[in-house]
Amino acid sequence: MPDRPRRWEVVGIVPSGPYLSRSLGNSYTVSGTLSPDSTGTYYYAGDYDGHDLFRRNDSAYEIWRDTLNNWWIISVAAGDVTAGCWKRIVATIAGAYTAVAPYTGTASVAIDT
User: d(Cα 55, Cα 42) in Å, to the nearest integer?
Assistant: First the structure.
């Protein structure tokens, strides 16, 4: 992916603080011992329901914001948790994600610098 300047825009405030959105040019790395294996690099791929959407380089998984519950989710497709997922119940995308059955392991998401 070509180098692009990192641009951020604060688009809202939630009870736990501001969340960053519109992070064009940024990527995230998912790591951990996960089943199924969703590790890898995720790139900005547009938005879903008004929030950033990140897609793994092979398009097998996505990181997206569940606006109903205000969670970040890793799953096979934005809006789809029927096969399981990992969820993060805070406003920031980076950090630890808890598995929802049948998925297992703790996913760690870190911003690439």
Answer: 5
Q: How far apart are CA 100 and CA 102, in angstroms?
A: 6
Sequence-ordered list of residues with C-beta below 8 angstroms from that of 68, at least 6 positions apart, any chain: none
Cα–Cα distance measured from residue 39 to residue 86, given in angstroms and rounded to the nearest whole number:
12
For the chain, domain boundaries: 9-111
Place of tokens 């399981």: 84
Q: How far apart are CA 14 and CA 112, in angstroms?
A: 24
- Asked if omega into 2 is within 30° of 0 (cis), the reply is no
Residues 6+ apart with CB under 8 A from 94: 28, 109, 110, 111
pLDDT in tens, 6-34: 444 444 444 434 444 445 458 999 999 99
Dihedral angle computed from the Cα positions of residues 76, 95, 105 and 66, in that order, rounded to the nearest 10 degrees: -40
